[in-house]
Amino acid sequence: MLESAGRPILLTATVIERRIFRGTLTLLVSHLLEGDCIYAIIIGMIKVVVVDTSILISALIGSRGPSREILRKCLLGDYIPLISNTLFSEYEAVSKRKQIRNLCPLTNDEITKLLNAFYGVCHWVPIYYLWRPNLVDEGDDFLIELALAGNATHIITNNIGDLKNAELKFPSLTIAKPEELLRGI
Known about the structure:
Number of strands: 10
Strand content: 25-35%
CATH architecture of the largest domain: 3-Layer(aba) Sandwich
Structural class: alpha/beta
Helix content: 25-40%
Number of domains: 2
CATH superfamily of the largest domain: 5'-nuclease
Oligomer: single chain
Order of helices and strands: EEEEEEHHEHHHEHEHEH
Radius of gyration: 21 Å
Largest sheet: 5 strands, parallel
């Protein structure tokens, strides 16, 4: 409440609000129409992640566990998952394997709906520059390239050893197991 000549003044301004996503920071920006007041409130740090196929498949197969919780947090907007054409193709190919479908407690239709919901919250990132970190399994290089192109904070995987032994290191990128991310690493 403001005061003028010792008397309170009630502001009847309309507030316009919008959310702005900048990297891993979400701001709520408000503007008072009757004045020149603009203010921003930091809503929270949102982790931008690359979800390895091993996590997606573990989430499909198990009815509980850290991989399922990672997928749930992505769907709820707690994490922002990144995806590229290469990762999408790998998700599709592996999730359609007969042995995976047989282990999954969901029906084929439910798996399709779950994957479509997950794809709906993913941010698609085009890859224009190939880093080639020289991983032991060069087929995983695209995960690091996706993380760097999309400014990810984490790559979530069950195969830590495959990604941590890169010749080219990126200190701002954390490679973690799902339980580590859930604990706040």
